[in-house]
Write a structure and sequence with these properties.
With about 270 residues, the chain is mostly helical. It has helices at about 70-85, 90-100, 110-115, 130-150, 155-160, 160-175, 180-190, 190-195, 200-220, 220-235, 240-270, and strands spanning about 45-50, 120-125. It has a two-stranded antiparallel ribbon with strand order 1-2. Helix 7 (about 180-190) packs across helix 11 (about 240-270) and helix 9 (about 200-220) runs antiparallel to helix 10 (about 220-235). It is globular, with a radius of gyration of 20 Å. GO terms for molecular function: RNA binding. Belongs to the NusB family. This is Transcription antitermination protein NusB-like. InterPro entries: NusB-like_sf, NusB_fam, NusB_RsmB_TIM44.
């Protein structure tokens, strides 16, 4: 099966199940082990979480649900990632999850919402001196990962405000509508090593699709979108992904602005004829 669906110029129809399952998504450290099936390792180098830039938005509203735009972009990214893995349309997958019935006996621990923080991402590694110290840090890490798994796998209506769910759907609809244009744009700006191994860069390409569509379709200010995309990459991707995504989006924006100028000039010339 062809793995290069991210760069395929067709309607949204990625191949089914490149991976056997989606583990409960994610990690505050940006560690890919929790995103793709890989052998677990226990290093003595632990990634230290640090905060993102300060946000002007409250994190939780009066009803006790997430209400920041970051939460919507995070939910949209996770949905898009899952849609790529299983070969489905992201909007339909989102609505399916939104309307899914709760399992009998399921109880959501709302205290997790207060402890969960989607405004942190991985910082520089911490070198521990002893196994005991590493074990303690890993216990804290596992606790945070459990909280994230609890939140991100919960029915969305229990976690996100109505406005955030509406914004998430708008983001995913923009991705679907703009899929072919984004594919062409990504083909121009993405590094060759990413394009040569698209199956292991699904998450990074999803960040690019999300950001490009929000700029091109929804018209959100590019400074906001790029900053959010870089922060999502810091949080969920690894290696140089944040820097690469930043460069890809700035190149995309430059070409978008140049195309806009060309179109404006063409319109002006036609009016003068």
């Amino acid at each position: 099966m062809e793995a290069g669906f991210i760069l395929s110029c067709s309607s949204f129809n990625p191949p089914k199940t490149l991976f056997t399952s989606i583990s409960k998504i994610s990690s505050p450290r940006g560690r890919r082990e929790l995103l793709l099936p890989r052998a677990a390792t226990i290093p003595l180098i632990i990634h230290n979480p640090i905060g993102t830039s300060a946000s002007n938005y409250p994190r939780i509203d009066k009803s006790g649900k997430f209400c920041s735009p970051r939460a919507a972009r995070e939910l949209a990214l996770m949905t898009l990632y899952a849609a790529c893995l299983e070969g489905s349309d992201p909007v339909r997958l989102f609505e399916k999850r939104l309307n899914a019935r709760k399992e009998i006996g399921y109880e959501f621990d709302r205290a997790c919402l207060m402890e969960y923080d989607h405004m942190t991402f991985g910082g520089p590694p911490i070198a521990t001196q002893t196994i005991e110290e590493a074990d303690q840090i890993l216990k804290n890490y596992q606790k945070e990962s459990h909280i994230e798994a609890e939140v991100l796998s919960a029915p969305p209506k229990l976690v996100y405000s109505k406005l955030i769910l509406l914004f998430t759907r708008k983001l995913l609809a923009a991705v679907s509508d703009n899929w072919e244009s984004s594919v062409l744009a990504i083909d121009k700006v993405a590094p060759d090593n990413w394009k040569n191994e698209p199956a292991i860069r699904i998450l990074e390409f999803s960040v690019l699709h999300l950001a490009m569509s929000e700029i091109a379709v929804l018209g959100t200010r590019h400074q906001i979108v790029i900053n959010e995309a870089v922060d999502l990459a810091k949080r969920f991707c690894d290696g140089a992904a944040p820097r690469v995504i930043n460069g890809c989006l700035r190149t995309f924006l430059k070409e978008l602005e140049e195309n806009g100028k060309d179109q404006a000039q063409n319109v002006s010339m036609q009016e003068n004829v």
